[in-house]
Amino acid sequence: MRDFFIQYANIAEAIQKTFGSGCEVVLHDLKTPEHSLIYIVNNTVTGRQVGDSFSQLVNLMYSKELANNHIANYYFRAPNGKLIKSSTVFLFDGDGELEGAMCINCDTSRILEQIGFLQSLLPNCSEIQRTEGIDDEIHVKQMVTSLIDSILRDCDPQHMSRDARIEKIRFMEEKGIFLMKGAIEHVADQMGINKVTVYGYLDEIRGKR
């Protein structure tokens, strides 16, 4: 773990102890995106492990609810099937460079049991859905661009094989990187190829060839 995250690891421990067994706190190092999960307290909530990659973070960057580098009280379905109530804070260094994220995940299983009972009495209740959008496009673009640079940091464009390029683009496609306008052009520039080639790789990944 890099020194930058040590203080946040202590905060993660304190938060988890405050909210108890239904709470999990995760730290992601976005300088190592493909294995970003570097610290987790109480992984019984989502079952995730150190060394895993992020799943929700790029979508959160696009959310209109993102403000002051955090988004609170959104929901997602964990791989183990649990509905998770979560809040995420993006972490920056003193120069404003995106370094990572802290995610606070709360298991809603017990709450849902109670809701199920209440819904049996009030059958017209409906689940509230979170809406998404873009709040600050410039700030979002900076964060996503920084993430792209981290994904490609150790790549040598002159010596990357075609398969290596495709795997990097596949990872970025899975994480929603290409939802950002201009992402394809930036990736092409960083890889030393033209954007038509990136489009071709994406077509192949998406099964259009």
Largest sheet: 5 strands, antiparallel
Mass-distribution shape = globular
What's the alpha carbon Rg, rounded to whole Å? 19 Å
What percentage of residues falls in helices of 4 or more residues? 25-40%
One letter per element, helices H and strands E, the order comes to HEEHEEEHHHHH
Counting helices, strands and paired strands, the structural category is alpha+beta
List segments where confidence is low: pLDDT < 50 over at least 5 consecutive residues.
125-135
Measured between the Cα atoms of the first and last residue, the distance is 41 Å
Question: Strands of the biggest beta sheet: in what spatial order?
Answer: 2-1-5-4-3
Question: Could you describe the 3D structure shown?
Answer:
The model is unreliable at 125-135 (pLDDT under 50). The protein contains seven helices and five strands, in the order H-E-E-H-E-E-E-H-H-H-H-H. A hairpin with a 5-residue loop joins strand 4 and strand 5 (98-107). The chain is globular. A five-stranded antiparallel sheet has the order 2-1-5-4-3, with helices on both faces. With 209 residues, it is of the alpha+beta class.
